[in-house]
Amino acid sequence: MKKLIAGNWKMFGHGGEAMGFIEEVRTKLGGAAPKADLLICPPATLVERFVRYVKELPIAIGGQDCHVKPNGAFTGDIAANMLSEIGATYCIVGHSERREYHKEDHATVKAKAQAAIDAGLIPVICIGETLHERADGKTLDVLKAAIKGSLPDSDKIVVAYEPVWAIGSGMTPSREEIAEAHHALRRMTVPGVRLLYGGSVKPQNAKEILSIPDVDGALVGGASLKAADFLAIVEACP
Ligand SMILES: O=C(CO)COP(=O)(O)O
């Protein structure tokens, strides 16, 4: 199975950038099949536009979050079925930038992941330790608790290991630390669940990270905003 390289655009990007990104990818791919499965999760305002621009390009489009309910009086929220209705096929849930800000516990993340599955989306479930938890040697305990508490009973999910302290910092765990975490995650998840690494993945370190056993791809933030950087990470796949 190919690796999955997913881009999380977070709160960046407007219409013109979306079109420019897709056209640059189209030109650089030149009709050839990419070395990985590709996924872009833009701001919700751009999902439908990305789906329209992508057309026959092999790029899946996803959301960055969804509500636990299919509808209701939840001002400003987006239901998973609203994303699938406009062509999304994945949805990130439980990203640390939302977990912390919105105090989302494991049960909430699990309910969001189930809502995504119920809407026909593949949830990308984010888990990862804080710097304090790492310093206290609790990383594997944190991952075990997150797997136990956040994953619905399904193989139609993706898990993204994103050490909170590595996001946006330019720092990553060592090869050995990533290998240990992903080996543990492989043992705790059902066959077929893809395990992505996320947290300061760049064109410069992607080859090393993507060569680590049990790393099935990457969830990329900043380096996914530019087509050249995103495709350089794709090219780094073994
Ligand atoms: O949060 C991330 C992906 O979801 C990682 O972001 P960076 O790649 O910018 O560290």
UniProtKB/TrEMBL annotation:
Organism in which the protein naturally occurs: Lacibacterium aquatile
Keywords, in A-Z order: Cytoplasm, Gluconeogenesis, Glycolysis, Isomerase
Functional pathway: Carbohydrate biosynthesis; gluconeogenesis; Carbohydrate metabolism; erythritol degradation; Carbohydrate degradation; glycolysis; D-glyceraldehyde 3-phosphate from glycerone phosphate: step 1/1
Keyword Signal: no
Enzyme class: isomerase
GO molecular function, one term: triose-phosphate isomerase activity
Keyword Isomerase found: yes
Main location: cytoplasm
Domain of life: Bacteria
Catalysed reaction, written as an equation: D-glyceraldehyde 3-phosphate = dihydroxyacetone phosphate; L-erythrulose 1-phosphate = D-erythrulose 4-phosphate
Record-annotated active site: 95 (electrophile), 162 (proton acceptor)
Gene3D superfamilies per UniProt: Aldolase class I
Family statement: Belongs to the triosephosphate isomerase family.
Cellular compartments annotated: Cytoplasm
InterPro entries in UniProt: Aldolase_TIM (IPR013785), TIM_sf (IPR035990), TrioseP_Isoase_bac/euk (IPR022896), Triosephosphate_isomerase (IPR000652), Triosephosphate_isomerase_AS (IPR020861)
Pfam families for the chain: TIM (PF00121)
Name under which the protein is recorded: Triosephosphate isomerase
E.C. designation(s): 5.3.1.1
Function according to Swiss-Prot or TrEMBL: Involved in the gluconeogenesis. Catalyzes stereospecifically the conversion of dihydroxyacetone phosphate (DHAP) to D-glyceraldehyde-3-phosphate (G3P).
Binding sites annotated in the UniProt record for substrate: 8-10, 168, 200, 221-222
Subunit structure: Homodimer.
